Amino acid sequence: MVQDFAGLAWRRLAAGVLAGLFLCLPAALAEQADRQAAPRSGLMWNRTGLPAVFPLQVKSPAGADYYLVLSGSGGDALAAYVRGGAFFKVLVPPGRFKLRFASGRDWKDEERLFGPDTVVFELPQVLEFAVRGAGLKAGHLVTLTRESSGGGLRAEVKGQFVCQIASLEGAEPSRIQAEPPRGFILGGNMHARAVLHLRWRLGLTGVEPGTPDALWQRSLFVLGNPGLPRHMPQFLSPPQLTRFQSGFRSYSVRSLYCG
Description:
By secondary structure, the protein is α+β, with helices and mostly antiparallel strands. The protein is built from 3 helices and 13 strands; from the N terminus they run αβββββββββββααββ. It is rod-shaped, with a radius of gyration of 46 Å.
């Protein structure tokens, strides 16, 4: 009798424990689902329709996550999710924006944020994202710290820049080899020219203009003699500047963080 009563008591106790577990399980699962619904770190949406090319880096303390919204003259422009203590950088479109941070531990959604414990912080100054100079994209680095009293946030803002560097790509230009200079080439027979040259050097003959000898000598050098092969005189080539063989070359543009 006593054993039956003890067994009945244990069965009722086990049933009560199981009922309590089943009642608590949906709440625990819902809470776990809310915690897993937090988005990945990075850009959530960009409503401007403009290309995001300007850098924004956020350094934040660990222990909480952050929901960042950039607001311009036309309303909310961009949103991003930041994991507390982790490296975070996002590209934003050009413009002037206010930065608003919502901080908490358990993310709900974009309306409820982190629930009733959400801490909201907004930068007092407007940040401008624009091109400065030639190929310099100006952005910002925001460092968040948590105040010891009250647990609020404060921010320090510095500039951050992306430099664009253009470089040539493709085959290097090749140097064109210049032709060697060519001297003056005389017409006539080489032996006859040599004999005439020796006679002049030894003073054995004098040539009077218009005489038959002068005409004969002239026929050896000038190409008017029909009995000699016709050669066109060739002169030294004038000096030429160094030329290069041009080929197709393309440009590449690289973006580097320079500050």
